[in-house]
Design brief:
The complex is a heterotrimer of chains A (about 150), B (about 190) and C (about 325). Chain A is built from 1 helix and 10 strands; from the N terminus they run E-E-E-E-E-E-E-E-E-E-H. By secondary structure, chain A is mostly beta strands. In chain C, a hairpin with a 2-residue loop joins strand 11 and strand 12. In chain C, helix 4 packs across helix 5 and helix 7 runs parallel beside helix 9. The radius of gyration of chain C is 28 Å and the shape is extended. Classes of the chains: A mainly beta (about 150), B mainly alpha (about 190), C alpha+beta (about 325). Chains B and C meet through strand 1, helix 2, helix 3, helix 5 and helix 6 of B and helix 1, helix 3, strand 1 and helix 4 of C.
Chain lengths: ~150, ~190, ~325
């Protein structure tokens, strides 16, 4: 089941890709000792009104051939605009974290495969909009069929 | 006030910290306090419908109780479970003492300094707070434990003195009641 | 029509929180596919759970700790002080506590032997040394902030053991430190300089001359020797010599880089630069400060070709080794490390 957080603020315009985007990084990029064990960190960029930034994350996985879905907390790091994702999903199976963001009328998304030793940078995708169901399924399929950590 | 997400995923206590607390090490106790204080305070604050004085009293009471009873903590369950059991007991005791004297004491829990253009956001936050405050105490506490410290259902069952099935049931009912009371927000998806 | 007893209403939250077993999930989803009522309830529960993600956590006022501390200094310990009165008293108390701490004897740390036969278990404080033979390994608890595993054939001493400074001296051998504390509370001195914990887990080995290796598995370590600094993030290592810390490199770096920076081989700068990947900007960033002006310009050009130079970082300032500029660039490059 794909489930995302809600956007509580009124959206006045729907201009996609106006500079609002995510940058993904290893936990060291946050330079915040509290998140040294995070699965990965990310930065929300190009949001002119940070107060209106809305973020949510969900982990979609396949465990023993079965699809699983776990809501994931998005935790702000000490630097403004930087957030951490800690592993809250089971260690078994293959998992892709789906990030979703909204800033005013702009949106951003990301598909981040995460293995036992952290996120797979080369396989991660940053999008100018939330990932579609098809993209999520495709990411999971690539990861489970041929993903290597 | 900062977003709920501003916290460690689950408290990772340094090796030896609890032993040092048991041995009466004040520095260790301060470290332990720093790890949990915001979560304990927030649970009490939301449980008592924004009453900051009660939340501060509960937090003080819990940590004083903690330091005097920590030698009894044998590590049979997770430390956080044990701590939150103290929080649950303290909130329940205070509820019994206070009866129903909370009307009119609700504080605004929204981020201070919100601009006028953020009125919608402020109103939404306030609606959520009110909806949580309106939950029956048992459902309210279950919801707060889950969302302020990501406790597993097993840990919550221990802290709440009930079965995991009861935890699941209380959370399901709590979520549904919140959804019913905040139906008006659905249009903002 | 589905019987009421089979409804999954009470499992809705457990489902969205991933708390159901695979078998329960299967049963749950089978029922859901048949039951419109439960699907509607699931929608409600999902919405309610989403809304709770918007709840905000509150910071506990500092006055609470003051009141607790005041309470701890009262007998019996469980007596509670009114917060306002306690705050003033605690402020005065804080000054006294501060003074007492300065004069307080240093802490003792526990040592536990985990392998071998050598007598090792006990407590150590400043001035004490732990020396393991080839077959003995031990674990030292570093106050309340972490632990240090001591490998065989290692000599390590406690230099300082107080709240603001936990310092070891590693004369020879190997240690593995796991620290859960804010940065700059844990230090290890070696003949090649000092490893400063920036919130991390790492292994450090050295001989008595300072030749050794720092390997970081989590967080950051800064290695300092006079004006020479090396910043080593998780996944990277750094050689040390009697002249101080070398240039850090990622453990998965191309062979050419590892031959130069791990093994001390000699290669042309252009060969090193050509082999560097985006992630190896860690190595190149350190190289900027260790080469002459002409080489620095070539290093800068390669870095600029690998990834865009951020706003505010200019060629001129980098070549002048302007410290704030280099720090800003490093912070940006860290997103690729």
């Amino acid at each position: 089941m794909l489930r995302m957080g809600i956007v509580l603020l009124g959206i006045t315009t729907l201009a996609w890709g106006q500079g609002f985007t995510f940058t993904l990084g290893s936990p060291v990029a946050a330079q915040d000792f509290q998140f040294k064990s995070a699965a990965f960190v990310f930065r929300a960029e190009g949001c002119p009104e940070p107060d209106k930034l809305q973020l949510s994350a969900i982990a979609e996985g396949v465990v023993s051939g079965e699809r699983r879905s776990v809501t994931v907390k998005v935790m702000p790091a000490s630097k403004p605009g930087v957030y951490a994702i800690a592993q809250s999903w089971p260690v078994e199976g293959k998992w892709v974290v789906i990030l979703k963001g909204a800033c005013g009328g702009q949106t951003a998304g990301a598909l981040v495969p995460v293995g036992p030793r952290g996120f797979l940078r080369e396989a991660a995708k940053v999008l100018p909009r939330p990932a579609t169901s098809g993209e999520i399924e495709a990411a999971l399929k690539i990861f489970t069929d041929g993903g290597k950590q | 006030m900062v977003p709920l997400r501003d916290r460690t995923a689950s408290a990772e206590l340094a090796p030896g910290l609890l032993e040092a607390c048991r041995a009466g090490d004040r520095e260790a106790f301060r470290v332990l306090y720093d790890v949990y204080k915001d979560r304990v305070y927030s649970i009490a604050l939301y449980f008592f419908q924004g009453d900051q004085t009660s939340a501060a009293d509960i937090t003080q009471q819990v940590f004083l109780k903690l330091i005097t009873t920590i030698p009894q903590f044998k590590g049979d369950s997770a430390f956080s479970t044990w701590l939150y059991r103290l929080v649950v007991n303290a909130c329940q005791d205070a509820t019994r003492r206070r009866k129903h004297t909370l009307a009119g004491t609700v504080e605004d829990l929204t981020v201070p300094g919100s601009q006028e253009e953020d009125l919608v956001r402020t109103q939404v936050s306030r609606s959520i707070q009110d909806a949580i405050a309106s939950l029956p105490p048992k459902l309210r506490m279950a919801v707060l434990l889950r969302y302020f410290d990501d406790l597993s259902y097993e840990q919550m069952a221990e802290a709440l003195h009930c079965s995991m099935g009861t935890v699941a049931s209380r959370l399901s009912r709590g979520h549904r009641m919140l959804a019913e009371r905040l139906q008006s927000l659905r249009g903002r998806r | 029509m589905t019987l009421f007893s089979r409804h999954v209403t009470d499992q809705l939250s457990a489902h969205i929180h991933g708390q159901l077993s695979p078998r329960e999930t299967q049963r749950f989803e089978r029922h859901l596919s048949e039951c419109e009522q439960c699907r509607a309830h699931l929608d409600q529960v999902t919405f309610g759970a989403d809304i709770l993600e918007e709840v905000q956590i509150a910071r506990a006022p500092e006055a609470i700790w003051n009141a607790i501390e005041a309470g701890l200094n009262q007998a019996p310990a469980s007596r509670r002080w009114p917060l306002a009165a306690a705050a003033l008293a605690a402020t005065m108390l804080a000054a006294i506590v501060c003074w007492v701490e300065l004069r307080a004897p240093a802490a003792q740390w526990n040592v536990v032997r985990i392998h071998g036969t050598q007598q090792m278990t006990g407590r150590v404080g400043p001035g004490d040394w732990i020396e393991t033979d080839a077959s003995t390994r031990a674990v030292v608890s570093v106050g309340v902030i972490g632990k240090v595993e001591v490998a065989g054939n290692t000599r390590v001493g406690v230099v300082a053991a107080r709240p603001g400074e936990h310092r070891l001296a590693l004369r020879r051998g190997r240690i593995h430190a796991t620290i859960t504390a804010p940065p700059r509370l844990f230090f290890v001195d070696t003949a090649a300089g000092t490893a400063i914990d920036l919130g991390c887990e790492y292994s450090l080995e050295t001989d008595e001359e300072g030749s050794g290796l720092l390997q970081v598995t989590s967080g950051w370590v800064e290695f300092q020797w006079g004006d020479l600094h090396s910043l080593v993030p998780a996944g990277a290592s750094c050689r040390t010599t009697r002249d101080g810390p070398g240039i850090p490199y990622f453990d998965d770096a191309p062979d050419v880089l590892k031959q130069v920076f791990a093994e001390g081989a000699s290669r042309q700068l252009d060969t090193v630069l050509a082999a560097a990947r985006i992630r190896d900007s860690l190595t190149l960033w350190h190289l900027l400060m260790r080469v002459g002006p002409a080489e620095r310009e070539r290093v800068f050009s390669r870095m600029a070709a690998l990834s865009p130079v951020p706003a505010g970082v200019t060629r001129e300032l980098v070549l002048k080794l302007d410290a704030p500029t280099l720090a800003r660039w490093k912070d940006e490059l860290a997103w690729t490390w």
